[in-house]
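Minutes, project huddle
Topic: does the predicted pose make sense with flavin-adenine dinucleotide bound?
PN asked that the exact inputs be recorded in the minutes so nobody has to dig through chat later. Recorded below.
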Amino acid sequence: MSADELLEPKAGVPSTDVSDPQYFHKVVDCQYACPTHTPVPEYIRLIAQRRYTEAFLLNWESNVFPGILGRTCDRPCEPACRRGRIDEKPVAICRLKRVAADYKGEVERYIPGAPAEKNGKRVALVGGGPASLTVARDLVPLGYTCVLFDKDPCGGGLMRTNIPSFRLPEDVLDEEVDRIVGMGVETRFGETVESLKALLDEDYDAVFIGTGAPRGKDLQVPGREEAAEHIHIGIDWLTSVAFAHVGEIGKNVIVIGGGNTAMDCCRSALRLGGQDVRVTVRSPRADMKASDWEIEEAELEGVPIFDNHNPKRFVVEDGVLCAVVFEKMRAEYSDTGRRTLTPTGEEVTFPCDDVLMAIGQDNAFPWIERDIGLEFDEWGMPVVDKTTFQSTLPNVFFGGDAAWGPENIITAVAHGHQAAISIDLMCRRLSLTERPQPGTNLMSQKMGIHEWSYDNNWSDHRRVPVPHQDLKLALTDLSVEVELGYDDKLAVQEAERCLNCDIQTVFIGNKCIECDACMDICPVDCINFIPNDAEDALRQSLRVPAVNVEQDLYVSDPLRTGRVMVKDEDVCLHCGLCAERCPTSAWDMAKYTYVEAQASPVCTLHNRAEFL
Amino acid sequence: MTYMTKPSVRHPALRQNDLGLTRRDYEGVISTLCAGCGHDSVTAAIIEACFELSLPAHRLAKLSGIGCSSKTTNYFLNRSHGFNSVHGRMAAIATGANLANRDLVYLGVSGDGDTASIGLGQFCHAVRRQVNMVYIVENNGTYGLTKGQFSATNDRESRSKKGKDNLFEAIDLCAMAIQLGAGFVARGFSGDREQLVPLIKAAINYDGFALLDIISPCVTFNNHVASTKSYDYIRDHSEAVGGLDFVPPEAEIEVDYEEGASTSITLHDGSKLELSKLSDGYDPRDGHGAIDVIRRQYEQGNVVTGLLYVREDVDDLHARLNTPSQALNALPESDLCPGQVALEAINETMR
Ligand SMILES: Cc1cc2nc3c(=O)[nH]c(=O)nc-3n(C[C@H](O)[C@H](O)[C@H](O)COP(=O)(O)OP(=O)(O)OC[C@H]3O[C@@H](n4cnc5c(N)ncnc54)[C@H](O)[C@@H]3O)c2cc1C
Ligand SMILES: Cc1ncc(C[n+]2csc(CCOP(=O)(O)OP(=O)(O)O)c2C)c(N)n1
Ligand code: SF4
Ligand code: SF4
Ligand code: SF4
Ligand SMILES: [Mg+2]
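Predicted holo structure (tokens), as shared on screen:
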């Protein structure tokens, strides 16, 4: 390279603005993917330090139900986890959350309550599921009077009525529901809201509708009417089981459907006397809606899954259901990947005593009058704003499964937080579209020459399996929890697999002397010093081409030689070797804290440096 | 230096060479040199070159003397043979090893102290004997390991970090090697990987003595403003004599060079050195010209880099001594130790 070649920077990708709150947030894959943006790596580090109480509170602040979610969350964070792009499996983020809840100490003193002086505003919450409970938790500390209605005798929604206790013990559920109710929520359990109009006529400043998607889908095939006594709608049957209205089932049980409800149905049936319990699905197994781990658990308990089986008719003898006839299907995929299922012509008959129908849920709002100004769309769903959760009646808000159909608990919680923000803004007569911004902080973790305030060692460990209860014992009773959870040693082992994705690599270009040391030491070849170029070309010209376009490139301003530093964020281990190797400290490892905005900063943790 | 071990995990899409190995498979233990040391960059360039050549690690021997530079043989190819000799004696060890087993690739790594001071005599004789090896000098103008004394390659007009003048003339190892009959002489810069890797590849494939004098800044003792071996100084004052592409025997030449714009040199194994963008009238086959350019540029404060000199027709040490064509360890016992009668016959010729 001669002197004149030095100073001609090439045009290309503009340099990265790391002050944009979303830039580093996106690098924390798990937190970014979590609907409530739980600070995952921070709580995992706390667990590794056996600081369970802090880990719990950090979770509680974001996701409100750490004990429940640590057992049941749909875990959108795990497929996003960086470890999964490097290693075979992601970090067991969800089950580590359970560890925090299981081993925490006294937390009640950190839980905020209603202020002595109320603000005079009243909010009605219809439905006692996670969405409504979250709204209450966020608004009570601000002085709102929250009145929570549920037709059931206690709160929790589907978490209580549908998630079986072998997955979610009742005491865990009670503890976390009661914690919110105990903050000062007025409950009207056992009260069905029959008319929104009537409710609006009462003295409420806002109404939040979190009534879920309460109607299980049915299947009209020949024999349905005659066999009605032994054909049960899955979610209704699970509710009856939860409230002990149903205590047994026939020996031969067929579950129709391939989602998580089907998995809970078949496993519950096994515990209520079912001996030959089968799951049947119309589609190929690979297309089943249930989470992989739910399918795995069902199979582990001995439930076979018959895919490509489409129910054709129910066979009734002497007025009693005795079998189901299925036609076998074949899936064909068009060039565009569209699937069509066609019958192969082959039929099979499975004898049975009972059928559990788990083929989906619908929303139903029979109690909402259509002439009060609340608009519904052509599919009978309320028109709800995606950001504000406001309906076309300005003081009525929706969230959870009631808003856009069945999702999961963590989504319901995220909706609850946003709806609470909206309700608060509305009551303060502020614009609902000017949302509060997240709080962020970037702090160097350097402690000394080779000392960082986080453990940057790479652990080779495979994902640690969660210990299970003895299968025989587990099947004896609905209330025996199947998963035992990690003990503290296993938890630390699993926690060490986390890559600390919130500890950011921060590049200070004007310090760089372009010695290449960081580029050479990087175990995963993230760092490059090259001429800038258009993004596609730049991605191709890296040491390892950056093909994962979901992940950003970190591009510096031009350096002394005219080149730029380009870091592919995709598989960075956050090991800090680049920063250790840099002679001029042009790299720093800095912790990025991202606190999602909420109606009230319920948890004061982030304001208390000594706590974290 | 770093205390942490480098994670064993690698990028899942890391490229593999013809042996199915990745660049990571050519690494050694983690370096204990100062962060930012040029020597670590040379290590990375060696790794890259060996990876790209698909060299099987067990066919290579690493040799070194004493110094930070000489420590680096531990940081690459940790499945190769190696000998870390006493100060300045690498050339002798390489000569002996090469005579015993001519089938290995010999890669020597030395420093400017190890070579131009204590080892200067050793170096000169390895050159004139045409030992078939790559001799890399990681040249930082200082004794890094012993904390920054001037070395014999340090330029007259440079000053130490503490402001002391250098009182003596610098030895230019490239000019010296050309004079002593080396067949392949090149100069590189640790901070210019693009130029360096093809030079190393060409040197490995060259049959005969190949010198690579690599300016490799010492961040701790010789990277200050008054230094002429700092990153900044070299970036501002290096003058490449031309570009070099190394083309292995079986590969197609990918770049289309303009007629007359490139010089092609074929090595004994059929691989090619494609020299392009040669500066005005520069001919790397002309030794006098090369020495002249090195001198003139030096007088202007510049450092010439690139393939400075190459001869296509050298006989290496084995050819000159007419040694057997196999490594000693491959000779049958009867040839290796022909017995008393043969010994007496030899003795007879000497009486
Ligand atoms: C079998 C099954 C298993 C599931 N497992 C999981 C899991 O493991 N993990 C996960 O994340 N999600 C799971 N889900 C989904 C999850 O339970 C729901 O997405 C979540 O509970 C939705 O919360 P919500 O607050 O919107 O309403 P819901 O939890 O549905 O609560 C709505 C409440 O409103 C009440 N209500 C309805 N109408 C009225 C009215 N007119 N008056 C008074 N009260 C009324 C209902 O009684 C109910 O209690 C599962 C769902 C099912 C069916
Ligand atoms: C026989 C002998 N004399 C002196 C020394 C002390 N010594 C160790 S390294 C060194 C100089 C090394 O300089 P160089 O080869 O340039 O290596 P660098 O550390 O600069 O890479 C000296 C003089 C020694 N180890 N052995
Ligand atoms: S490795 Fe840790 S911080 Fe990174 S995505 Fe996975 S859980 Fe989150
Ligand atoms: S922290 Fe630095 S050295 Fe470690 S993987 Fe990321 S970029 Fe590479
Ligand atoms: S180690 Fe530091 S100075 Fe060297 S290239 Fe990397 S950032 Fe620049
Ligand atoms: Mg030296």
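Observations noted during the meeting:
- Chain B has one domain: 23-321.
- Chain B touches chain A through 42 residues (CB under 8 Å).
No decisions taken; revisit at the next huddle.
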